[in-house]
Amino acid sequence: MYGPGIIAPVHMADRIQRNQSIEALSRMSFGVLATFLDRLKRYGEISVSKELGTRHIALASEADALKIVPADISLVERPPMRTIPEYLAKFYPGGKA
Q: Is residue 96 part of a domain?
């Protein structure tokens, strides 16, 4: 299965992630999305009227108010896994992906 039909809504207040905080996952997903959009732009698949930038803005709850929490995100595009020799050796011994 693939496509938008398999995406399900998640109530973030009830979601428990044991390895990363919701704040860390938010910053990480911002970086992934920004890198993805940049790649689409470079390949000529989309045109943008305004750059997304590298500044992630989050809201944190503090007592009975919300606080703005900005963070600079380093956008690093990594090579495809199928170009990493160690990955190929581990998951495709003797062959190519």
A: no
